[in-house]
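To fix ideas, we reproduce below a protein record of this kind.
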Amino acid sequence: MMSEDNVADIRLVGKAEVIELRTTGLDVPGEVEQFRQRLVLALDVDDSVLAMRWAARMKPWFGVAKVGLELFSAAGPPIVAELMEAGFRVFVDMKVLDIPTTTRKSARVLGALGASYLTVHASAGLATLAAGAEGLAEGAARAGLPAPAVLAVTVLTSEAEAPADLLRFRVEAAREAGCGGIVCAASDLSEAKAIAPGLLAVVPGIRLASTGADDHGRAATPAEALLGGADMLVIGRAVTASADPEAAAASIVDELAAAAASV
């Protein structure tokens, strides 16, 4: 059991550093915790109070909270600090797509705020990816925070018809730019890992077998993503739109445990 004073060291696949997470007063069984640190809760809402309620409700199953453009636009930078204080690592999903100078400066601010992860569009090119990685690291270092990671968005899960060589080009750019990881569809994991095995692979578009794919053209189940090589899974509507979110979250962890036990 974890007490208020416990600090758990979580080593993520593909990352050299150890990310230190303070788990404030949360009792989480060990078998759940190993998956909890790989599950990202997508807080796709436009209200900080609602976001924090969802975060508190789903905390037993999720160790990372994702702040997208909608929530960041509504709540601003303070939402990052609120989620950190609640015991989450924070994934700022801004999908930055701008010139290198602007990207570096924006990433520096987000790094100082405490973002553990920041998405930058790989389509912006090598210079912008590198600027984002440098800026995010600089901001975190200035604030005395652990080293964060820029995640290069490769090919969106909504892009069902992307050119065959696009994934390779963007993953190579992420690797050369010094990004900590990539965001890709589960169906792209095998190729992406072959190109850059040292990068963290984050997979969105996760759906339970019983739920629809919504606007994700290349959705996957939790087990499919895990067995494909995903390091982190982004999950939103599969739990937040469920009639029983707690049961849905628990079933995801059960599915991941069964998949891990099968290999």
Summary: The first helix runs from residue 30 to 36. Residues 1-26 have pLDDT under 50 and may be disordered. The radius of gyration is 17 Å.
